TrEMBL record:
Residues 42-291, 327-569 form the ABC transporter domain. PROSITE patterns: ABC_TRANSPORTER_1 (PS00211), ABC_TRANSPORTER_2 (PS50893). InterPro entries: AAA+_ATPase, ABC_transp_ATP-bind, ABC_transporter-like_ATP-bd, ABC_transporter-like_CS, Oligopep_ABC_C, P-loop_NTPase. Residues 10-21, 583-604 have a biased composition (Low complexity). The keyword Lipid metabolism does not apply. GO terms for molecular function: ATP binding. Keywords: ATP-binding, Nucleotide-binding, Transport. This is ABC transporter ATP-binding protein. It comes from Nocardiopsis endophytica. Pfam families: ABC_tran, oligo_HPY. Belongs to the ABC transporter superfamily. The keyword ATP-binding applies.
Amino acid sequence: MSTGQAPHTGAESEAGAGAQARTPGTGARQGDEGLYLREVPARVKDLSVAYRSNGRDITVAENVSFEVAAGRTLAVVGESGSGKSTVAGALLGHLRHGSRITSGSVEVAGRDVFSLGGRDLRALRAHDIAMVGQNAGNALTPSMRVGTQLEEALMARVPARAERRAEARALLEKVGLPGPDRIGRRYPHQLSGGQQQRVAIAMALAARPRVLVLDEPTTALDVVTQARILDLVADLSAELGLATVLVSHDLGVVARMADEVVVMREGAVVEAAPAAELFAAPRHPYTRRLLASVPRVSDAGLAEVGEDGTRTVRDRAPVPEDAPEVVSLEDVVVRYGRSRAVDGVSLGLRRGEVLALVGESGSGKSTLAWSLAGLRAPASGRMRLHGEQEGDLAAGARKRPLALRRRIQLAFQNADTSLNPRRIAREAVRRPLRFFGLASRSDADARARGLIEDVALDPALSDRLPQQLSGGQRQRVGIARALAGGPDVVVADEVTTALDVSVQASVLALLDDLRTERDLAFVFISHDLAVVRGIADRVAVMKDGRVVEEGPVGAVFAGPNHPYTRRLMEAVLEPDTAGGAGSDAAGGAAGAAPDASEGPDGAATQGTAEGEWIDLGGGHRIRRGGE
């Protein structure tokens, strides 16, 4: 489909193709006579948006057209800067400061959004369209109980307080939150990320809208929570007959959720088609490159994608068998109050190795990594760094000598908030050089430029502020800052979560190159198991503060697995390029954990000294017992 042409989302095109719409409440399909197929609550026609810069117009969206029928989901995908979020915001009558509509129209519930006055636009947002953003924690008011916030969202439609309270309770139950009275009394910070996202969805549904806009709703969620949220949205969309617009860079999520897909690049629609058709046979080279960049659990390394969309998997340099251990953890316990966030973890990390920590939110993986970096001292157990500066890591960062502190550095998930917005990129890298006494004032600038060049950034960008850099560029600055101290170990905490698939691929390749060039050890925290499969040498799966499975990445992904590991793998979504539907990627990991007395082939196994592990050989072990 050509740029600017509406994708086949309306009744006429679907009737011609024999497509059918979901029947609300059943998830089944109904024919053209159905109410939901005839309604088109959201329509964008020839929309162009621009902002003024240095006396000229800069176009951010150009001749974009699509329509979404009731009960259908349309996904808008593309990399950062493609204009997808601009178009999604336009559905709510929202444009970034300085932007304006230069041509075209946006209709919601039969009304031209940008012809409405302030009062009518507020009424439209209150009754006909709602939005769920990427970070529900930021969208919720931290000083208000979530029940009160939900009742406030109902105020325009339900005047009686008792009725509002009853409906708020019903909405919390509808989005799958057990104990709605208990949940309603909590503040947002007392809820998990998945619970916060469900509350945000409940608030969006409070007005009973006809159009629901989802802007990266599952980016920061682990795979199990993501699956629950996606199932919830799909069920509610079918039940309520919502026209849903999904903005996402996660093509696995798109394949699972969308009926139609619009692909945007540099403000223009480059391809638009039914989801099954697009994933099975993408026509545009850009779409093919996006799909090829998606990491897969079947990859035995990192994918490299050519300009024409051809895909190869780079060979992974193995860690030498005689590589020395650089960090060891023995029976580490980390507490928050009376609860154990980390409960008796023992692990080792060798020089040049990438150890991935995976698990759901609240599993303890980030707490363990932060404790290693000195941000949270363990309550008990041993943590040691080996080598020339062998030292005790059980003390917090402030109590560690500088020579020890610099040997373990952090690269954070969100470079937007971890970089000082008022300091240029070079200053962010120069500061640790001066702090650790590794460079004189006169040498620090040149060393900082060199580090920025080492992470494949143009040194000319070192004079820019963080907001003048793209997400991938900011993340590279964060990595350069972590390298400035000359560490032995880098803790990479969800460093690719919010990045587009192609940018993510380049950052992962950079980390792998740095590992081999500098003989670095990485602790890599991620909820994306496909990324873990490509970047890691070993995997430790955590649940409720304990490691339930550990081993070489190939062995863990081939199975047999602990039931919890298997559940994580079954929740992974990958775009199925053969059929277009989102598929789980359990692959060879479907094998169940053997009984305590049996190995993967039914042979007897030797338990560890602790007596609570099943040893499968080759460093692969599974904790006894189920979930």
